[in-house]
């Protein structure tokens, strides 16, 4: 089939056992559902982290939950400029070191947060008046802080919140932007790569969760420009602070996908969602499922552990209440993470009960020079299992609204419902082959 020739194809349900060697490409282990967030995320090769404050590391409940549930940490404030270089050339790493050694002792990943940011910036930096001075202060800060932690940090938020809110799409007017122009961002990333070539280098921001928002488009364009010119950037951090004024966007997954399609990882870096009960749980579930659906969404960090330590404590935005009880949001996140493993290898092959059948209809979505989207609508049952066979050298690089597993070749995707209805979609990187995959449906 050639691009544009076939608009619609039908595949009807296959009764009986589908013979498939289901080995989950997104899954490194399988079996019983994991009982903690970190373990559940690790099943699909992802991490699940929390922002941690050094001054709570002496509290036994806090540390118990941190150690049990999370396999990544982000120092909430301790690696920021005001903490690490309060006066020029004088570095203090005590509190950050405490978090790093706690994490290292338990095999947790560490996200470095953050090197260049307009906020929590000591007065001496804001007061610098010449471009040369700002340049040398910025580069020295990156070199010293990254050098101190070289080899220990999984990902660094190299530049944080550098874009204005609203419709301008402009860079924020910080001392860095005002003295050095927009090019300071690129310079910071280049300096960072040289300072620790083993760390992933992220651009991190809030209000870039909606795929179409002006601020998102501006960051997207910057990342695309960096990738096209070889400026070293490895990841985009979606902070993802949500509440009723700033809800989880309906296109959140599409947004993750569009950044991933630029060739960077996406990390959800500061997740918190104000609310309570099942409404909050539903929102958390949506965020986690969106990340799981995009293979380059590599991990999720919640911005704190119990509600009362959150920067937005009155909105109770976290997964544990003030007594460290698991909230419904916790249960939803854990279930979603466990759902990502789908069908375990060697077991659970789908069968269609006699007399029941389903239909999968495939249709075209957006297309670009290197890839195209397709969607599959299923009718006849809500308990479906759809097998999608792509043709080598094609690769499925993203999926949405379904829970995928893969055979060992990576060419056969088995899709099951993930609670988002009976239509799922995926992106094929065509590598020169524009043919559509075959699809078949069975009742699960
Ligand atoms: O440590 C001092 C303490 O000695 C003093 O008595 C007290 C009085 O106000 O302040 C304490 O410092 C506070 C610090 O948190 C530690 O608790 C600061 O005032 C307070 O401003 C600071 O807030 C942090 C905020 O960043 C600053 O912008 C929050 O904890 C932290 O969660 C928040 O995190 C940011 C991310 O870095 C970037 N994205 C947004 C996110 C939420 O605002």
UniProtKB/TrEMBL annotation:
Residues at the catalytic site: 270 (nucleophile)
Key words of the record: Carbohydrate metabolism, Glycosidase, Hydrolase, Polysaccharide degradation, Signal, Xylan degradation
Ranges for domain GH10: 31-336
Keyword Lipid biosynthesis: no
Gene3D superfamilies: 2.60.40.290, Glycosidases
Domain CBM2: 351-444
EC number: 3.2.1.8
Signal peptide: 1-32
InterPro entries: CBD2, CBM2/CBM3_carb-bd_dom_sf, CBM2_carb-bd_dom_sf, GH, GH10, GH10_AS, GH10_dom
Class of the enzyme per the UniProt entry, highest EC level: hydrolase
SUPFAM superfamilies associated with the record: (Trans)glycosidases, Carbohydrate-binding domain
Keyword Signal: yes
Membership in a protein family: Belongs to the glycosyl hydrolase 10 (cellulase F) family.
Protein name as it appears in the record: Beta-xylanase
Upper classification of the organism: Bacteria, Bacillati, Actinomycetota, Actinomycetes, Streptosporangiales
């Amino acid at each position: 089939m050639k691009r544009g020739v076939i608009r619609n194809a039908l595949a009807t349900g296959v009764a009986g056992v589908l013979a498939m060697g289901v080995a989950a490409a997104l899954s490194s282990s399988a079996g019983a559902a994991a009982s903690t967030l970190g373990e559940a995320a690790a099943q699909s090769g992802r991490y699940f982290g929390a922002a941690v404050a050094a001054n709570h590391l002496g509290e036994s409940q806090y540390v118990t939950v941190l150690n049990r549930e999370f396999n990544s940490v982000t120092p909430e404030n301790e690696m920021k400029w005001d903490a690490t270089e309060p006066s020029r050339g004088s570095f203090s790493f005590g509190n950050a070191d405490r978090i790093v050694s706690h994490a290292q002792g338990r095999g947790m990943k560490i996200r470095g947060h953050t090197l260049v940011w307009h906020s929590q910036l000591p007065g001496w930096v804001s007061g610098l008046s010449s471009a040369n001075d700002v340049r040398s202060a910025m580069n020295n800060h990156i070199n010293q802080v990254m050098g101190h932690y070289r080899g220990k940090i999984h990902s660094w938020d190299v530049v944080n919140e550098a874009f204005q809110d609203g419709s301008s799409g402009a860079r924020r007017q910080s001392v860095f932007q005002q003295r050095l122009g927009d090019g300071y961002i690129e310079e910071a990333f280049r300096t960072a790569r040289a300072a620790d070539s083993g760390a992933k280098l992220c651009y991190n921001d809030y209000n870039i969760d909606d795929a179409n928002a002006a601020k998102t488009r501006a960051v997207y364009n910057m990342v695309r420009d960096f990738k096209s010119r070889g400026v070293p950037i490895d990841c985009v951090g979606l902070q993802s602070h949500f509440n009723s004024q700033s809800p989880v966007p309906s296109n959140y997954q599409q947004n993750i996908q569009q950044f991933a399609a630029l060739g960077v990882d996406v990390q959800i870096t500061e997740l918190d969602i104000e609310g309570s009960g099942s409404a909050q749980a539903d929102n958390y579930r949506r965020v986690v499922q969106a990340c799981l659906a995009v293979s380059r969404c590599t991990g999720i960090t919640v911005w704190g552990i119990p509600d009362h330590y959150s920067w937005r404590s009155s909105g109770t935005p976290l997964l544990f209440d003030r007594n460290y009880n698991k909230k419904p949001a916790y249960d939803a996140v854990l279930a979603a993470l466990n759902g990502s493993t789908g069908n375990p290898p060697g077991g659970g092959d789908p069968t269609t009960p006699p007399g029941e059948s389903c239909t999968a209809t495939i249709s075209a979505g957006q297309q670009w020079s290197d890839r195209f989207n397709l969607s599959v609508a299923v009718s006849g049952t809500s308990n479906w299992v759809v097998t999608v066979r792509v043709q080598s050298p094609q690769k499925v690089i993203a999926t949405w609204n379904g829970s995928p597993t893969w055979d060992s070749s990576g060419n056969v995707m088995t899709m099951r419902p993930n609670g988002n209805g009976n239509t799922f979609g995926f992106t094929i990187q065509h590598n020169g082959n524009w043919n559509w995959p075959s699809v078949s449906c069975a009742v699960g």
